[in-house]
Amino acid sequence: MSPDPSAPGALTAKQLAAEKARLIADALAEGFSVVRITGPDSIPLAPERLQSFLEDGHHGSMAWMAETAERRADPRVLWPDVRSVVMLGLNYGPEEDPRALLGEPDRGNISVYARNRDYHDIIKGKLKLLAGRLASRTGHEVKVFVDTAPVMEKPLGEASGLGWQGKHTNLVSREFGSWLFLGSIFTALELPVDAPERDHCGKCRACLDACPTNAFPTPYRIDARRCISYLTIENAGPIPREFRAAMGNRIYGCDDCLAACPWNKFAKASSEMKLKARPEFEAPRLGDLAALDDPAFRALFSGSPVKRIGRDRFVRNVLVAIGNSGDASLLPAVRTLLGDPAAIVRGAAVWALSRLAPDAFSSARIEAIAREDDEAVKDEWRALGPAIG
Predict the structure, then answer these.
(1) Going by CATH, does the domain composed of 13-211+264-279 fall within 3.40.109?
(2) Which of 25, 207, 246, 312 has its Cβ near the most Cβ atoms within 10 Å?
(3) Residue of 26, 106, 147, 327 with catalytic role
């Protein structure tokens, strides 16, 4: 066959090195903190490790992980034409340790990553700009991915030299600690690759010991079903009773294992891409959050990843935090939500009432069970008190 005159020509080693340098400079100018490059064949152990994770059920209700396992485990299955994977990291390190807010039980603790605009939107827009320029300069096709696609960004980040997967399974960087958003550009251009990063965790287990729900069965392995981030975000049903007290005031995600990492001492608070936290998300009052109806919830969390879980699931989380607060002044909010249209909210309100006002809970149980039409909510009333005859 005669060559396709529209196909991009081969670049010399010198041209590829120059293109890599230009890409990195471009990415840093757009606000990314670090850029490294790896090949699509750089994570050969990923398929086996992913399969073991899935077989153990550690993905919980995240069925999409199993459905996309083949594509997730091998970039070449996701896109056969990929020749290089450009991994980019954006520092979102907080100005203060987010665990300090755990000592203020009347306030809600929202994970650091969700205290501003949705990072998917911020990063994807920047990646599209970078990838578009790369494709325009070289004539080679590109694709961009940020978390929502079946890409194993953390193993690829380790293979590229961005950092290493710590014992908490998140990427750790010597420059930015555990605070990096990750994104990737797949390109059909075969760029020079960087050396992988080695594991620098040593004997440290600070992240494992910090987990309030013991979500790590072994180092480097997480059971999502026990993780507060999973429970408050991915989990659509009631928070399992065994984990409610341990949640404290964490109402969206959990930063404990990230914040405990000693490598964070090298990370500086982020100023890139205007990722400073919105003040109203730094320490919101639980009473104010419990009063949110759907329109108010959507307005407050417009542009935030919190919006994706919906008002009902969010207020469920808030009620668990209220139950842990010991603050009787929040009882009126709890009593109001006992009559909420959403069963998942009513059930969480039952638990909060049992914690804040045990006597009121006991006296209301029989009548409440009789008028309740949702079996899961009835079960909350039954399970949280003595057996009913």
Answers:
(1) yes
(2) 207
(3) 147
